[in-house]
Amino acid sequence: MPRAETTFHELTVGRVAERSGVSVSALHFYEANGLITSARSAGNQRRYSRDTLRRVAFIRASQRVGIPLADIRQALDGLPQARTPNAEDWSRLAERWRERLDENIDQLIRLREDLASCIGCGCLSMTACRLTNNNDRLSSEGPGARRLMPGTPRADVAVAEQA
After folding, report:
1. Is the pTM above the cut of 0.70?
2. Which is nearest to 120 in space by CA: 106, 138, 94, 104?
3. Assigned CATH for 10-85
4. 144 band by pLDDT with thresholds 50, 70 and 90
5. Are 33 and 22 in contact (CB under 8 A)?
6. How much of the chain, in percent, has pLDDT values that exceed 90?
7. Could you tell me which residues come within 8 angstroms of residue 153 by beta carbon, excluding any fewer than 6 positions away?
8. Which tens digits make up the pLDDT trace of 17-59?
9. CA 66, 76, 87: angle at the middle one, nearest 5?
10. % helix / strand / coil in the chain, to the nearest 5?
11. Where exactly are the structural domains of the chain?
């Protein structure tokens, strides 16, 4: 049975979770990290203003495209009087985040192209590793899947170098 709409201007944490599609624990996390704020009722229960729904939507959309929470918080802190982001704010931030998103897209393309044979460090195929990472030479560049990191050579370049 659907709930009746409240006439109050404040929402409980459960109502914000229901309306935003975000778990209560995520809302508590956002609040603990300064992304959203609440007031306390006389019974010490959290109460959120309705604009929190838009803030949460902004946070989730930003996360969905790969923006770290620290950067989202910085963006929200930069708004005048800590207001809720509007379309103009989103456009300005999207332009600022564009370069990072392009780097993420490039990294995902490299991952897609290399995924069938190797994740970039050779751990899935010793045969391929001997060809593209002879004697584990990529380990000298640091830990992890080196070929998937921005600015590192692609597998086909490494093969050409060893030929």
Report:
1. no
2. 138
3. 1.10.1660.10
4. low
5. no
6. 26
7. 147, 161
8. 999 999 999 999 999 999 998 998 888 889 999 889 989 999 9
9. 80
10. 60, 5, 35
11. 10-85, 113-162
